[in-house]
Amino acid sequence: MIDFSAITSKHHIHFIGIGGISMSGLAEIMHDRGHTVTGSDMKTSATVKHLESLGIEVFPTHSSSNITNGIDLVVYTAAVHDDNPELIAARAHKIPTLVRAEFLGALMKTYDYPICVSGTHGKTTTTSMLSEILMDAGLNPTITVGGMLKSIQGNIRLGGSEYFVTEACEYCDSFLNFFPKIGVILNIEEDHMDYFKDIHQIRGSFTNFGKLIPWDGFLAINGHIDHIKELTNDMICKVETFGLDEGFDWYAKNIHLNEKACASFDVYYKGQHKGHINLHVPGMHNVLNCLSVCAVCHFLKIDINQVNLGLTLFTGPDQRFEIKGNIHGVTIVDDYAHHPTEIAATLKVAEDYPHNRLFVVFQPHTYTRTKAFLDDFAKVLSSVDCLIVTDIYAAREKNPGDIHAQDIINKIHKTEQTAVYISDFGEIADYLLEHCVPGDLIITMGAGNVNQIADILLGN
C-alpha cells in the first residue's frame, strides 16, 4: 500500500508523458496544490500548451538530462517501458517512482468521497454525466475524465470539496491501485487481450475492484452482466443493480427516443417511481449509463429532479457521437468507438439519427485488439452502406506483422457491402467528397487520430 503522506511531503514531481489525458490532469492538480511540477512529452498538443501556460515546464523529449537532483518523485504511465531514459535515470538516482495508477490511487486517499467509474465501455460518458450533476448540485467536485468535457473546458476540474470523480480503467489492473468509496461497474467484456488472458481473468479483476469499496461505501453494477452473483457475493459494501428489467434495483420504463435518438424515460427504484429523465445524448446505451448515475446520486442523497436538472445542458464529452459539422448537406460525426460492442452502440445511434446513406471511416486501435476481434469487427461493420478502413493505430504496440487493416476488408468483401482500404487521410477525405451526397452521414470512428479527417473535410 502506498503512503500518501510521503507524496504530500514532496516538492518537485516529474511526469513522464505529461501530455496524456490522465497525466495532464494529475499534473495540474499537483501544480494547483503548490508542488513544483515538470514533465516530458514527445508530442506538442493543446494539452501541453495549456500546462505550459500554467507555468509547468514540459520537455519535448525523453532524456536522462530531464531528471535533476531536485526531483522528489517521478510518475509514469503503463506505456513507459523500463528502457525509458528518464525512468532509468530516476532509478539510478534512487528517486521514488510511481506508475500513474498508483499515484492516482494515493491521491484518492486525500478525499472523503472518491467515486470511480469502471467498465469496458462508457466510462468517460458516465463520469461526465455524474460530474455535471455534482457540479450543478453545488458539491464542487474535483474531476478527472478521459475526454474533453465542454462545461469544464478540458479533462480536469479542480474542486474544493471532499468529492473526487474519476474513471477507473481495468487495463493492467490499474484500478486495483485505487481507493474508491463509491464505485460503478457499467459492463464487463473481453478487451485489452494484450494483458488479460480471457474473460474469466477480466471478471476476476472487476470483482477485486468491487472488493476495494469499504463496508460503508456503495457499488452500482449493471444487472445484465452474466452470473452477477459470482462477482458481488463477497463484496462488503452496499450493492445495487441497474438495468432495463423490473427485476433490478434501478430500472427504466416508458422509454422514448426523439428525432435525434435521445431518450426520455421514467426511473424506478425497487418498484417505486422516482422521477423522469430527459437525456440530451443519443443512444439506448446512455439510458443504462444514466441509471448507474441515478443510483450513485441516490446514495449521495441527491434528488432525482436535481439529476435531471444537472443533465439539462449535457450533450456528452468530445468524440462520443460528436457532431463536428455539415458540408454540402452531409453531416459529419466523430466517435471514439474502438471495440465491437462500442461500434454496435454507435451504429444503433446512427440508425435512429436522420440520414440517407451511412459512411463509416474506421481506424482499428492496436494490433492485439484488431487480431482478437477481427471477425467481430467485420460482422458489426458489415451493416454500413460504405466502409473505409484505414491503418491500425499502434498506440503502445509494435507491429507484429501478422495483422493488417486490410484483413477486415477481406472479411467484409464476403458481403455485398462497399468496403475499401485507404491509408492516407487526405485520400479518404477526397473519396468521401466524391461519393457523398446531401443527406448522407459520415462517422469517423476510432480511438486514435482518425478524427483529423473531420477537420480536413471541414477545412479546420
In CATH, what is the homologous superfamily of the largest domain? Mur-like, catalytic domain
**Strand order of the biggest β-sheet:** 8-7-9-6-10-11-12-13-14-15
**What is the helix tally?**
16
Give the mean pLDDT: 91
Query: What is the percentage of strand-forming residues?
Result: 25-35%
Main sheet? 10 strands, mixed
Work out the radius of gyration. Answer: 22 Å
Which class do the helix and strand fractions yield?
A: alpha/beta
Helical proportion, percent range: 25-40%
How many DSSP-defined strands? 21
Q: Assign the CATH topology of the largest domain.
A: UDP-N-acetylmuramoyl-L-alanine:D-glutamate ligase
Low-confidence stretches: none
Oligomer: single chain
Query: What would CATH call the class of the largest domain?
Result: Alpha Beta
Architecture of the largest domain, CATH level 2?
Answer: 3-Layer(aba) Sandwich
Shape: globular
Distance between the termini: 47 Å
What's the number of structural domains? 3
EC number: 6.3.2.8
Catalytic activity: UDP-N-acetyl-alpha-D-muramate + L-alanine + ATP = UDP-N-acetyl-alpha-D-muramoyl-L-alanine + ADP + phosphate + H(+)
Protein name: UDP-N-acetylmuramate--L-alanine ligase
Enzyme class: ligase
Structural notes for this entry:
The chain is α/β, with parallel strands linked by helices and 460 residues long. It folds into three domains: 4-100, NAD(P)-binding Rossmann-like Domain (Rossmann fold); 111-310, UDP-N-acetylmuramoyl-L-alanine:D-glutamate ligase, CATH 3.40.1190.10; 322-458, Alpha-Beta Complex (Protein-Tyrosine Phosphatase, Chain A), CATH 3.90.190. The chain is 32% helix and 25% strand. It contains 16 helices and 21 strands. The protein has helices spanning 4-8, 21-32, 46-53, 85-92, 100-108, 123-136, 199-211, 228-232, 285-299, 304-310, 340-352, 367-372, 374-381, 405-412, 425-435, 452-458, and strands at 12-16, 36-40, 57-59, 73-76, 97-99, 113-118, 142-149, 154-157, 163-168, 182-185, 218-222, 238-243, 250-257, 262-269, 272-282, 322-327, 330-335, 358-362, 386-389, 418-421, 441-445. The strands form three sheets. It has a ten-stranded mixed sheet with strand order 8-7-9-6-10-11-12-13-14-15, sandwiched between helices. Helix 3 (46-53) links the parallel strand 2 and strand 3 (57-59). It is globular, with a radius of gyration of 22 Å. The termini are far apart.
